[in-house]
Design brief:
The protein is mostly helical. It has helices at about 1-20, 45-60, 60-75, 85-90, 95-100, 105-120, 145-155, 160-175, 210-230, 230-250, 275-295, 295-315, 350-365, and strands at about 120-125, 130, 135-140, 185-190, 195-200, 335, 340-345. It has one domain: Glycosyltransferase. The protein is about 50% helix and about 5% strand. The protein is globular and about 55 Å long.
Length: about 375
């Protein structure tokens, strides 16, 4: 099952780069990558290159490596981009993999540079990395990117970078993660005093609701920074958010078309689209992180089982586009921005990337399916 899905992913990505060379899509429209729809922000260029690196590392095919290096170099200049909060998405998935493979210090320097650039978004008043929206805005998404600052700090011995990364994580933990493990998408601060004002959202139902992709970012992001730092507070936070996901995402229902797959927002009574496959793919990676991080073998097995359950559901034809002629993405039923009606019930690049990443990780273990 997993090998079949991984092989299908390779064929879809090969078709994409051969049909639209040097093109970085965000979401499909009617199953097609190339269209004139709004992008909202410039944050997805690392996911295509990341899949190319994964394909090369698993198969050894040099063609995939040539493409991976090419698409990575196309975004090299973004290491200095101060307009977005997504440099971890861009460079951890691409240049970090490149460095891990080669040990080339010049490649590593690009990753370090990106981490330093991201740190420049830090707001001393409030102690957070500002989102691309405004100076007073913090996104839960940034937990997926802050790891590159930790990495830059560890590689350079820069104590200030390390402090910035920790302070951002602790602010996010304090104000964006609720007692039941649900999460806010956005936090708003007073720029003069640094006082936290309210929870808000750009993509969920309300400021006090739980946008599913944001919850998945939290599970994966906090578990990843725990792996980087060993700070137990981050592991505890990731497990709290994981508990919310497990409780609210239908694992006990056993539905073949919905087990482990959340809606866009857990609290939205309208639920115009019942599933967001991209949030599920991210969460699967987060559960794999947790399965490797916790010391209790029972919980480790439970988190791994959750990841497998999600992936098995995503490999079914309801989600995997293998039985949908003409569909150019890998996973169907993803959501980009429901509020703006962008990429709703479509393929999205991060969903495809995190699905491929999770498949690669489980296939590296002994339970290949």
């Amino acid at each position: 099952m997993f090998q079949y899905a991984f092989d299908f992913a390779q064929s879809q990505v090969r078709h994409l780069i051969q049909s639209h060379p040097d093109f970085f899509p965000v979401y499909t429209a009617g199953g097609r990558w190339k269209h004139g729809g709004e992008a909202w922000t410039n944050w997805c260029e690392g996911f295509l290159g990341g899949m190319l690196w994964i394909f090369h590392l698993r198969t050894g095919d040099l063609w995939w490596r040539e493409q991976a290096e090419h698409y990575s170099r196309l975004i090299e200049h973004r290491q200095h981009d101060r307009t977005v909060h997504d440099l971890g998405f861009l460079f951890w998935s691409t240049w970090k993999r490149w460095y891990d493979l080669t040990g080339d210090p010049a490649v590593n320097q690009v990753v370090i540079s990106a981490g330093k650039t991201l740190s420049l978004r830090f707001k001393e008043n409030g102690a957070y990395l500002r989102s691309f929206m405004a100076d007073d805005s913090l996104f839960i998404d940034i937990m997926m990117n802050v790891g590159i600052i930790f990495y830059a700090a560890q590689q350079t011995g820069d104590a200030q970078l390390l402090e910035i990364a920790h302070r951002h994580c602790r602010t996010t933990r304090k104000y964006m993660v609720r007692g039941d493990g649900g999460t806010a998408h956005e936090g708003i601060f007073n720029l003069d005093s640094g006082e936290f004002l309210r929870q808000s959202t750009q993509q969920g139902w309300r400021g006090d609701s739980t946008w599913a992709r944001g919850l998945a970012w939290a599970i994966y992001g906090f578990s990843h920074v725990y792996q980087l730092t060993g700070a137990l507070e981050y592991l505890e936070t990731a497990r709290l958010c994981a508990g919310y996901y497990l409780l609210h995402t239908g694992f006990s229902l056993g539905s073949p078309a919905g087990a482990g797959i959340p809606p866009n927002d857990y609290d939205d009574p309208r639920q115009p689209v019942p599933y967001d496959s991209s949030a599920a793919a991210i969460a699967a990676g987060g559960f794999l992180n947790l399965s490797e991080a916790v010391q209790d073998i029972i919980y480790a097995a439970a988190y791994r089982q959750a990841a497998f359950a999600i992936l098995e559901t995503l490999c079914e034809p309801h989600y995997l586009a293998s039985d949908t002629p003409g569909w150019e993405g890998i996973l169907k039923h993803g959501i980009y921005h429901q509020v703006k009606s962008l990429g709703v019930d479509e393929s999205v690049m991060w969903g495809d990337y995190f699905f491929v990443e999770a498949l690669d990780r489980v296939m590296t273990g002994s339970e290949v399916q």
